[in-house]
Specification:
By secondary structure, the chain is α+β, with helices and mostly antiparallel strands. The chain has 5 domains: about 1-55, Helix hairpin bin (Helix Hairpins, Orthogonal Bundle); about 85-315, D-amino Acid Aminotransferase, Chain A, domain 1 (2-Layer Sandwich), CATH 3.30.470.30; about 320-420, Beta Barrel (OB fold (Dihydrolipoamide Acetyltransferase, E2P)); about 430-575, DNA polymerase, domain 1 (Orthogonal Bundle); about 595-665, BRCT domain (Rossmann fold, 3-Layer(aba) Sandwich). The structure holds zinc ion.
């Protein structure tokens, strides 16, 4: 018996150590080594042991303490009341147990709840004084957080001024990175050889907790607010009314929240959200169920770590175990060499996953990934496959260490690695892999949108020597194309027409399509606005560029570097020769001036990208999210959550046809 207890004590201590290690990786370094689900299982195991053997309980145990700390470099902010974390459940059974416990605690049977989505981001407290944002803080250890006011001021979604002006207000919310933005952001980082983030939450956390607020300013962060913590005026008696009030005051509040009357309605809400999950523009990892009555919330109270009146009901994890068959190296547009694991195909969240990026050599070492290893793969944010970890205990004798090639696997060119990058690059300017990627980028939807010039065709055109540079696209002949394997006369003709059409694309889009390193869609727009022709941009000095808001020193260097390369100058000359317009007309004035549009759903007559261009050409603005400032929501087929939000905010909703009528009137 005594011996058993020793074993149990050791087990408990072990679990605590493991949990603390993973908490540091998760909260401090934004680089977890296990999945959230596995982490929750560790905590759950520890909690059960501590409950069964109370003699080993400790106030310092991770089950008693909120995860996270205040990093050096930030001033601490003491919260007006603790920012607690939620307890998790994973099944309807556990959910019902919680309901039974809660009913006992508050001594009531007829409880009403509010169901909300649980956003996977970074918890923050926002402080307002007479309507002005005066402070923003992270959760930290729950009692005190980090002062991130300067960073929050740069986030568009964080209201700097609200309509509640009577004294103090502290609200709690979640800073997150929308999935689409996360995907682009990570792709860009991978291409730049920077460390990539495992999921949108880590990206949001890493982006907000920047010592330099101008870095935060360039990250695509958003906000949802979900709780009033302190208010000088009296607040409504229910949580649901508080959410409406927050909305009225000007905060972004999610529109999925609803009142639930019993366990059945909670279960239905859960299944509905599981089904809808894939369509959310943000990452949600579960639902949160809260008591609706604030009075009963107070009666239920909290433990040191979590409130008793709320619980997180997590979605099933989107992950699966599989085997690595091989590790290959891919060559990107700028020559970046990315190791990719080829997997035994496995279904995750309804999608077959057969490859997963390993990002770079350091990442392979950090996770100790080998060929033939069994691994856990997750779809981060429900989209991008991500290798969570390997199972070393299942490693077969024939597992093989990955050896990075000495030369480019495509062209045999020399490999180069600069000191400040984790990534290696092929340094051959004529590398075919790079050329193919550059052409693909140029023809892609967001660039020149040349439909018909897809991956396979680009491969064939480069391999057959018909495309030796991006500009060759504009000198292709219909006859030449129809000679290509399986390309009929009709598709050849169509492609030539598409290429011809693309000559009319706006200057900002061409700038983006050129593929200058670190110049994304938004940066290209800024550049096009500041420099009305590519010749002016070419003449700009690094100092000129750095001065522009939204252009950092790294981007400036890349732009200068781009124009230093002779091939690029030749490319620009040939594009001009082909008839592309590499200059813009300044259009901040126009019939849509002062109007903000949001587009949701699929448009039938044009792409969203083009619709955005049309609005901007007419002087209007297009925003990604519906706020009080939105004038019109344009609704296509299968609209997303923006539709509901616009209805709630009484925003004018127009169909695609009404949109065309509106712009033709204005044109
Ligand atoms: Zn190469």
């Amino acid at each position: 018996m005594e011996e058993d207890k020793d074993i149990i004590r050791e087990k408990i201590e072990n679990l605590r150590k493991q949990i603390e290690k993973h908490r540091t990786l998760y909260y401090e370094e934004n680089a977890p080594l296990i999945s959230d689900y596995e982490y929750d299982l560790l905590e759950k195991e520890l909690k059960e042991l501590e409950e069964k053997y109370p003699q080993f309980a400790s106030k310092k145990s991770p089950t008693e303490v909120v995860g996270g700390t205040v990093s050096k470099g930030f001033s601490p902010v003491v919260h007006p009341s603790p920012l607690l974390s939620l307890e998790n459940v994973y099944s309807e059974g556990e959910m019902n147990d919680w309901l039974i416990r809660l009913k006992k605690v508050v001594e009531r049977d007829d409880l009403e709840f509010v169901g909300e989505l649980k956003f996977d981001g970074l918890s923050v407290a926002l402080f307002y004084e007479n309507g002005q944002l005066i402070r923003a803080a992270t959760r930290g250890d729950g009692t005190a957080g980090e002062d991130v006011t300067q960073n929050a001021l740069h986030i568009k979604d964080v209201p700097k001024e609200i309509s509640f002006k009577n004294g103090n207000l502290v609200v709690r919310g979640e800073i997150y990175m929308p999935i689409k933005e996360f995907k682009e952001f990570n792709e860009k980082r991978e291409e730049e050889g920077l460390e990539v983030f495992a999921n949108p939450r880590n990206a949001a956390s890493g982006s907000l907790r920047q010592i330099d607020p101008s870095v935060t300013a360039q990250r695509p962060l958003s906000l949802f607010v979900y709780q009033i913590m302190v208010c000088s005026s009296e607040i409504p008696p229910t949580h649901f009314e508080c959410l409406n009030l927050l909305r009225q005051w000007g905060f972004p509040v999610d529109s999925f929240s609803r009142i639930l009357k019993n366990g059945k309605e909670i279960a239905d809400f859960y299944s509905e959200m599981v089904t809808l999950k894939a369509s959310f523009p943000y990452d949600a990892d579960g639902i949160v169920i809260k008591l609706n009555s604030i009075e009963l919330q107070n009666r239920a109270g909290s433990t040191a770590r979590s409130p008793r009146w709320a619980i997180a009901y997590k979605f099933p994890p989107e992950q699966a175990k599989t085997k690595i068959k091989d590790i290959v190296v891919q060559v990107g547009r700028t020559g970046a060499l990315t190791p990719v694991a080829i997997l035994d195909p496995v279904k995750i969240g309804g999608v077959i996953v057969s490859r997963v990026s390993l990002h770079n050599e350091d990442e392979i070492k950090r996770k100790d990934v080998r060929v033939n290893d069994t691994v856990l793969v997750e779809r981060a944010g429900g989209v991008i496959p991500y290798l969570v970890r390997v199972f070393p205990e299942e490693r077969p004798d024939d597992s093989k260490n990955f050896v990075f090639p000495d030369t480019c696997p495509v062209c045999g060119g020399r490999i180069h690695k600069s000191e400040d990058e984790a990534i290696k690059r092929c340094s051959n300017k004529n590398c075919k892999a790079q050329l193919k990627e550059a052409i693909r980028h140029f023809a892609s939807r967001e660039s020149m949108d040349i439909s018909g010039l897809g991956k396979i065709l680009v491969d064939k055109l480069v391999e057959s020597g018909k495309l030796n540079s991006i500009s060759d696209i504009y000198f292709l002949k219909e006859k030449e194309l129809s000679e290509i394997d399986r390309m009929g006369a009709k598709s050849a003709k169509n492609l030539i027409e598409e290429i011809e059409k693309s000559k009319k694309r706006a200057y900002a889009r061409i700038l983006y399509a050129l593929g200058i390193r670190m110049v994304g869609v938004e940066t290209a727009k800024i550049l096009a606005e500041k420099f009305h022709s590519i010749d002016l941009l070419k003449k700009a000095s690094e100092e000129d560029l750095i001065k522009i808001e939204g252009i950092g020193p790294k981007v400036s260097k890349e732009i200068i570097e781009f124009f230093r390369i002779e091939e690029n100058i030749k490319l620009i000359d040939r594009l001009k020769e082909a008839g592309l317009t590499l200059e813009g007309t300044k259009k901040t004035e126009g019939p849509l001036k002062g109007l903000t549009f949001v587009i949701t759903g699929t448009l039938s007559k044009t792409t969203r990208v083009r619709a955005k261009e049309i609005i901007e050409e007419l002087g209007g603005k297009v925003s990604d999210s519906v706020t009080k400032e939105t004038n019109f929501l344009v609704v296509g087929a299968e609209p997303g959550s923006k539709f509901e939000k616009a209805k709630k905010l009484n925003i004018k909703i127009i169909s695609e046809n009404e949109f065309y009528e509106l712009i033709f009137q204005k044109e």
